[in-house]
Amino acid sequence: MPAADRQSLEYPDGLSAGHGAGAKLPSLPARLFPTLLLGAVIGASATGIYGGLKNPEHRAEGNGAALTVNAPAVLRNGEFFEMRFRIEADAPLEDATLAIDETYLHDITVNTMIPQAEKEEAKDGTFSFSYGPLEAGERIDVKLDGQINPALFLGTEGTVAVRDGETELARLPMQLTVLP
Asked: For residues 128 and 163, is the Cβ–Cβ distance under 8 A?
């Protein structure tokens, strides 16, 4: 059998021994770069910079009441999350009210708020949730379940406060970073 016929039997149609000649692997740095890049992304995610860590707790004490907020600091777009608010009365409150800036809840869908407030109001850039009277030493825990809307990019910030009716007792600045 002639050499040309043998060569056509050893290689698929259109290929010959010359097609593989001279091919060499990329340099070691070029081969390691994708592995190092993937390792860096995985390592960074372990630090929590992309979200997923335990929610930080913030506390403010004021004249007659304390406010504790347990809310995420970093979330990803579209993610479901939970916030917890605790109002503790150090003195009797006629109308314990949780006040949240509209800017903090901008482009966030609130799915559930438990317990439901006796009165809800949106006024002067603030959402107010009134829970009625609290005696000194009593507390109320409020749970908010929500979801980040796709339009929210980079994040949001605002304040959360506890009031006795219209009188502000304690305030916390809050910030939420939203990643794609």
From this structure: yes
CA distance linking residue 129 with residue 95, whole number of Å:
10
How do 126-130 and 96-101 pair as beta strands?
Answer: antiparallel
CB 95 within 8 A of CB 166: no
Residue 130's closest CA among 102, 110, 107, 100? 100
pTM of this prediction exceeds 0.90: no
Residue 7 has a pLDDT of: 45
Mean pLDDT, residues 26-49 taken together: 81
- How many other C-beta atoms lie within 10 A of the C-beta of residue 138? 13
> Of 103, 92, 77, 96, which Cα lies nearest the Cα of 142?
96
- 90 CB burial (10 A radius; 0-12, 13-18, 19+): middle
**Pairing of the two strands 57-61 and 74-76:** unpaired
Q: How far does the chain reach from its first CA to its final CA, in angstroms?
A: 64
CATH code reported for the domain at 57-174: 2.60.40.690
Condensed to tens digits (0 to 9), the pLDDT of residues 48-102 reads 676 666 778 999 998 899 999 999 988 888 888 999 999 999 999 999 999 999 9
DSSP category for residue 18: G
